[in-house]
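Fold it.
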Amino acid sequence: MSHTNPINVIVWCITLISYMHIRVGAITSSNNAKTPALLVFGDSIFDTGNNNYRVTLGKVNFPPYGRDFKGGVATGRYSNGKTPPDLIAKQLGIKEFMPPYLDPTLKINDLLTGVSFASGGAGYDPQTGKLLNVLPLDGQLKNFKKYINKLKAAVGENTTSTIISQSVFIVCAGSNDIANTYFTLLIRRLEYDVSSYTNLMVNWASTFVQELYNLGARRIGVTGVPLLGCVPSQRTLHGGHKRSCAEKENQASALYNTKLNSELESLNQKLEGSTVAYLDIYNPLLNLITNPSQSGFQVVNKGCCGTGNIEVAFLCSKLSIGTCEDASKYIFWDSFHPTEAAYRFIVNDTIQKNPNLFF
């Protein structure tokens, strides 16, 4: 009959406890124990590389995208460097970079601290992502359900529930619906006026928030849309020979934001035990465009890539002649997406104004 050495038992117990700590350590981040993970959904502003794993033209995994990212790597982020999910995760003390959920190399610790489900080109409108074959929001929700099951298999149902209930969820969508589906492609303009279409968008957004809540989310932020008429592509397409801001797009953006804010305030009261917040990105971007020099910017009406008037996604490539040398002087990287420098100002403003959600 063999006898167990007591010292071996102690060592085994310490090893087991250490292993368990590693497996679930993300539940209590060292800098912010209240936020174990960040989970984001939506469009290209929050896509950190999911479109790399889809058959779509909506990819940006090539230079000059990512030229100011760590290592100068084009990861699939729609900017020259970091994007809001990275910057928010860093400020919350969670991690440096937000990985895409569809990355097949993800480890359990990557999942425990949060991922991006977003897909560049997506919108609330089911029609919006069809042209580019990107992942719609209902598809992103399906992936979130798979994510929950992966967590349960790794750390158990109780720990998974704790992670989901304490994590910050952010949904960023709507820009493609207004700028592309409604005003550029005219897919919906033949059916709805602006007021009716923005009502539809708010209904879709509200439904998505409630679905997240039903799956356990309790800290949910939803961004409005920026002043879309002032992004370089809309100036080019609808701003006339002076490339002024397109007023109809800006008015639609403001109308949608007002309605969304009201709906989220209602949900915040309705969904018990939740914090549901409207995240304003319209005014921070407006402030940068109106007073660029105060924040160190010089160019407001075109993007850094190429002419910056129409280049986006595959039209912004290493073949684009004239791409700027210093993106930090530009508010926009390509004709639709801000630079990392501009994103930093917007993210800082958003976090400071929404402490109930983030802290």
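The chain has a mean pLDDT of 92.
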